[in-house]
C-alpha cells in the first residue's frame, strides 16, 4: 500500500475515535450500559479477587508500561537501531500526551464505588493505553522462530492485556467505554506515529541518496 493510500484508513480511525469519544463523554447514550456492566461486575466482588486484580492493575499502570517502553527504546538505541528506538519513544510519549489532554478536556467522572485509589478523570483509560502499546511493540518487533512459540507469545500477551482491562472494570476505576477508548487511542496512535516515523526516514533516505549521486 502506498503512503498516500495509508492516510485514508488512519484518518477514518481518528474520526471514529473522536465520534466515539464525543458519544461517551458529551452525551448520556452509553452511560446506562456502562452502569449495567458495572452492576454485573459488583456481584463478583470479593476480598481475594480485589487483591488479585489490584496486583494485575499495577502491572499495567502508566508508570510501569511507560518505564518498560523506555527500556525497550533504550535497548534499540544501544544496538544503534535508532528508527525503532525513535518509534517506541514517540508512540509512548504521543499516546500518553494525547490521553492526558483528553482526560483534562473531557473530564469524565470515574465510577463512584471504586475499589482502588485512583486520581484524575476516567476517559480514556491510561492503564489500557500503555498496556496495549506494550503488547503491540513486543509483538511487532519480536517474532519467535517457532510458530508454537509465536502463538504462545500472542496468547500470553493478549491474556495479560485482557486481565488488565478486566481489572480496571472490576476495581470500578473505569467504565467499559473508558477501556474501549483507551485501546482505540493506543491503536490509532501507534498507527499514526509509525506512519510519521517511516515517512521521516524515507525522506531522509531519499535526500541522502540524491546527495550521494551529485
From TrEMBL:
Domain Phosphatidic acid phosphatase type 2/haloperoxidase residues, every copy: 83-194
Keyword field: Membrane, Transmembrane, Transmembrane helix
Tagged with keyword Membrane: yes
SUPFAM superfamilies per UniProt: Acid phosphatase/Vanadium-dependent haloperoxidase
Transmembrane segments: 12-31, 51-78, 85-102, 122-142, 154-171
Keyword Ligase set for record: no
A Pfam match: PAP2
InterPro entries hit by this protein: PAP2/HPO, PAP2/HPO_sf
Record-given protein name: Phosphatase PAP2 family protein
Source organism of this protein record: Secundilactobacillus folii
